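Worked example 2:
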Amino acid sequence: MGISASLGSSALLPAGLGFRNLIINGDFRINQRVFTSSASSVYGFDRWTSSSADGTVTYSAQTFTTGNAIPGYEPTNHARIATSGQTLAGAYSHLVQRIENVRTLAGQTASLSFWAKATSGTPKVAVEFLQIFGTGGSPSSTTFTYAGQVTLSTAWQRFTMQVNIPSISGKTIGTAGDDTLYLNLWTSAGSTYNSRSGSIGIQNSTIDFWGVQLEQNYQPTPFEQRPIGVELAL
């Protein structure tokens, strides 16, 4: 497992190969709900939800000004998680995407990459994957995989990390068809969640995200910009 703030120079898959990114709407350009902001655990940008406990956590849609804020791209929107007033051991806040099917990447090495920044200070983002085996019948218990953490600044940076997603050999998948691979981007976590969040601690901060990409690959490739019609269909 390795973490870097730079883009790897080599990859197992050619950079031009489509459908590398298992994250849908990783650049937050699709917003069919016309979402602006919410202090509840809700879906906002398509496929993206927030979850939290304690204090006030606001998930909101932000707009880039034109002028290439992220080199090589001209993005439109990004997601923001603003956390304040958290004090409890059970406090947390994170940005979440559920990836269909717990078989996804099982037993594989994957690369996660994303751009992030803070509005002030140097808070951290911790990354966790959950393999949720669904409901119906007698499914196996959820598997939690801590992938690592990064330290932000007030400038946009691309962070990358490698994670080994556990095998599901011997596991039982529920019969309801709602099993999933679950990506958690932790922005704050009380001591109850130390093992899952790498002890990043309570962080009353404001953190922005863009360009989230998950791929079956030892090295991250450039962020995949699929045609808008394709992304919308996904």
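Residues 1-16 have pLDDT under 50 and may be disordered. The CA atoms of residues 20 and 215 lie 6 Å apart.
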